[in-house]
Design brief:
With about 400 residues, the chain is α+β, with helices and mostly antiparallel strands. The protein folds into 2 domains: about 130 residues, Chitobiase, domain 2, CATH 3.30.379; about 260 residues, Deoxyribonuclease I, Chain A. It is built from 8 helices and 21 strands. A 6-stranded mixed β-sheet has the order 4-3-5-7-6-8. Helix 6 packs parallel to helix 7. The chain starts with about 25 loop residues before the first strand and ends with a strand. The N terminus is likely disordered.
């Protein structure tokens, strides 16, 4: 069954690896507990997390616990999930957690589960909790989200928001944050390590490129342990009128999987960014850039006829725009529409700029996104999962939530 959000793996599953045959927490029967979540928390560490914990416990023990928000009065035994209003939670969060840290312990008959974010909570599912129910640590640098058994190709797409060589804006200073590339860079490293993709398509990532001597804002990276690079090419868009600071371009790279020798191509692109209202001719400029990508894909098909083409990037326009319709009419299919196991219809864009950061993204759908992931010349290729990781720690590192494609070649 298709899901609205594929990425429930960031929800709490701390009992998944724990034997609860005794159906007890310490000396107390499990059925005596209820799950309490923070009504003010985001769903990924609040209500959704509580529901997922309830499901895991039910599957493991046959006991389905009640769920309540922390605005209800304390009563009996409780599993305190995240930063609830209970005094035990307040004590646990008295010192701030780093985004990937976690802690689990029992106090006054309550099980306290505290973490810096949903990724840390997720990691608790992979640990075997000791009988004392005390556990603490960090998931920094860990591989957190393995592919399913059928998937043999994972592609990560993300606009990483270049903010280099500039002073920290006052609004960021006031928030106690630093938005310069050197500070945010390690967070992208966390993202890569957590997903371990085979190929990455970045935008605004000109410092890393397959063409070292050229500025490339649309680099393609790859895992040399899982895929082999055949050849690649970087193409900056011209004229400069439609490529501010030479930042608009596309890079294609032809690969083959080391596991089975299957060939495939990844194209990372960043199209012109201004609206038609701001600069007349912008819609036509984006369409012309998309047309060049189509022509290049056709050329690549003539050389690699059996290679599916994955086109990913920040295209600065919605699905109904001329540029996107040109791609769709040429046979490029949005990955979120053809995922066979799970998909994600979230827009994937929010506020993160020199003016500050926040969840602001509205309730727009994937069709209204400016980030797109397409499959072309797919043949027997199966897109199994498409997801947009909207974890909270990503909000302040870029205005584009990363997209993940899990496919079978």
């Amino acid at each position: 069954m298709m899901k609205k959000r594929i990425f429930i793996s960031c929800l709490v599953m701390i009992f998944a690896a724990l034997s609860l045959s005794a159906q007890k927490i310490g000396t107390n029967p499990l059925k005596a507990y209820r799950i309490v979540y923070s009504i003010g928390a985001e769903d990924e560490v609040g209500l959704d997390a509580a529901k997922h914990l309830q499901q895991v416990l039910s599957e493991k023990t046959g006991v389905e616990l009640a769920i309540t928000a922390d605005n209800a009065n304390a009563a009996g035994r409780e599993i305190l999930l995240g930063s609830t209003r209970r005094k035990e939670s307040l004590k646990a969060y008295a010192a701030p957690f780093a985004p990937f840290e976690y802690k689990v312990y029992v106090q006054s008959g309550k099980l306290i589960i505290a973490a810096g974010g949903c990724w840390a909570m997720n990691a608790l599912s992979r640990g075997n909790l000791p009988s004392s129910f005390r556990l603490e640590g960090t998931v920094e640098g860990e591989f957190l989200f393995p592919q399913d058994a059928q998937t043999n190709l994972r592609i990560l797409d993300n606009n990483v928001w270049d903010y280099s060589g500039k002073p920290v804006p006052e609004v960021w200073k006031e928030a106690g944050e630093d938005c310069t590339d050197s500070v945010r860079g390690p967070q992208f490293a966390q993202l890569v390590r957590a997903y371990m993709p085979d190929v990455i398509g970045f935008q605004e990532g000109y410092k890393e490129t397959l063409i070292p001597e050229a500025r490339n804002d649309t680099p393609v990276w790859y895992n040399e342990n899982t895929v082999e690079l055949i050849e690649s090419e970087y193409t900056p868009f011209t004229p400069l009128l439609w490529s501010n600071h030479k930042s608009k371009s596309f890079t294609w790279a032809a690969f083959k999987l080391k596991s089975n020798g299957k060939p495939f191509i990844v194209i990372s692109t960043h199209l012109w960014w201004k609206s038609e209202k701001v600069q007349a001719g912008s819609n036509t400029a984006r369409a012309a850039q998309a047309h060049l990508i189509v022509a290049t894909a056709q050329y690549l098909k003539s050389r690699y006829p059996d290679s599916p083409v994955f086109l990913v990037g920040d295209m600065n326009c919605h699905e109904k725009a001329d540029a996107m319709q040109l791609l769709i009419n040429a046979g490029f299919t949005p990955c979120y529409k053809i995922a066979t196991v799970s998909t994600d219809n979230h827009n994937g864009h929010h506020r993160c700029s020199a003016k500050g950061f926040g969840r602001d993204g509205g309730n727009r759908t994937r069709a209204e996104s400016i980030d797109h992931c397409f499959l072309w010349n797919g043949g027997q290729t199966e897109i199994r999962h498409f997801k947009c990781d909207m974890s909270a720690f990503i909000v302040k590192i870029t205005d584009h939530y990363p997209n993940i494609i899990d496919a079978v070649l």
